Amino acid sequence: MNMKYDVTSRGDDTSNEIAELIRKGLNEHQLQQDEQEPEIVISVGGDGTLLEAFHKHKHRLQHTCFVGVHTGHLGFYADWIPDEAEKLVIHIAKTPFQVVEYPLLEVTVRYHRAGSSDRHLALNECTVKTTEGSLVCNVEIKGEVFETFRGDGLCISTPSGSTAYNKALGGAILHPSLASMQIAEMASINNRVYRTIGSPLVLPEHHTCLLKPLNDVSMQMTIDHYSLVNKDIESIQCRVSDEYVRFARFRPFPFWKRVKESFIGE
Ligand code: NAP
Ligand code: MN
Fold first, then answer.
1. d(Cα 1, Cα 204) in Å, to the nearest integer?
2. What's the mean pLDDT in 35-49?
3. Could you tell me if the CB of 38 is within 6 A of ligand 1?
4. 86 is in an annotated binding site
5. Any known ligand binding at 152?
6. What is the 75 CA–ligand 1 centroid distance (Å)?
7. Is the pLDDT of residue 1 over 80?
8. pLDDT tens string 196-215
């Protein structure tokens, strides 16, 4: 049985061309494109394109793995250059590859309407703001109220998402081997009345964080590149997911090297 693959593209001409090249190459090696049940997903574009590929296939994470080709700047998820496309095709077709697993964030939104909830999976992060005014919410950690947050919002990120929005908020960069999530503040109000911890917090597996809104406003949430507006929220629960995302690894490209090449330069 030949391996089934899917190729996704950012949609610009360059990405489409590279995607087509990869498709042709894989077909020549008798691999079959299968958009529904691929064992490997090749995303061509940027990190945003890989986020989309992840969400397209997130219901089958145990059966598929991802690899990203960047047609713009070096990405964290998209770390192959277009010139390597043919090499990548041969790797995929000919060599058994290693798989690395990165932790994900599970977000459960519960509504005041009895029994109603939504579950989301994030590869980068979940952010919570309101559509107008400050976010006012209790932050519970492991069932205990930790603080009352008042400010622009909160960002709860995965380790591989720590280099994205989280970094812009002054959060730490976490190595994806740490099964954890990070809570970073967006402009918290700190004075004699309102007090938050101020520092980003890193929580391990099984330490659930619960955000409980204290005012009745619409919540503006994001899960990776998706944005949702929700009313009537009782709580937003975040924890390290039991599920992992799997990346195909054909050569070493250590995380800290990607951090250096992305943010410091070569
Ligand atoms: P976008 O506006 O194109 O993304 C913003 C930038 O974040 C892009 O340069 C994107 O890379 C990069 N990026 C995505 N995931 C990353 C990661 N894990 N590590 C380092 N950089 C990463 O929108 P998008 O491409 O759909 O990506 C959605 C993400 O944008 C969100 O998950 C959030 O993390 C991020 N974001 C950041 C800020 C901020 O830094 N102030 C604000 C809002 C959203 P590509 O160009 O390769 O796609
Ligand atoms: Mn993008």
1. 40
2. 98
3. no
4. no
5. yes
6. 10
7. no
8. 999 999 999 999 999 999 98
47 is catalytic: yes
Ligand 1 contacts CB of residue 48 (under 6 A): yes
Was 48 annotated as part of a binding site? yes
- The model carries a pTM of 0.97
Nearest ligand atom owner, CA of 75: 1
Average pLDDT for the chain: 96
> What is the set of domains in the chain, with CATH numbers?
4-97+250-263 (3.40.50.10330), 104-242 (2.60.200.30)
pLDDT (average), residues 61-67: 98
| Cβ of 47 less than 6 Å from ligand 1 | yes
103-136 burial, b for 16+ CB within 10 Å, e for fewer?
bbbbbebbeeeeeeeeebbbbbbbbbbbeeebbb
What average pLDDT does the segment 100-109 reach? Answer: 98
- The string of DSSP letters for 130-176 reads ESSS-EEEEEEETTEEEEEEEEEEEEEE-STTTTTHHHHTTPPP--T
Instruction: Kindly indicate the confidence band of residue 191, based on its pLDDT and cuts at 50, 70 and 90.
Output: very high
Between strands 201-204 and 180-188, the pairing is antiparallel
Identify the nearest ligand to the CA of 170 by its number. Answer: 1
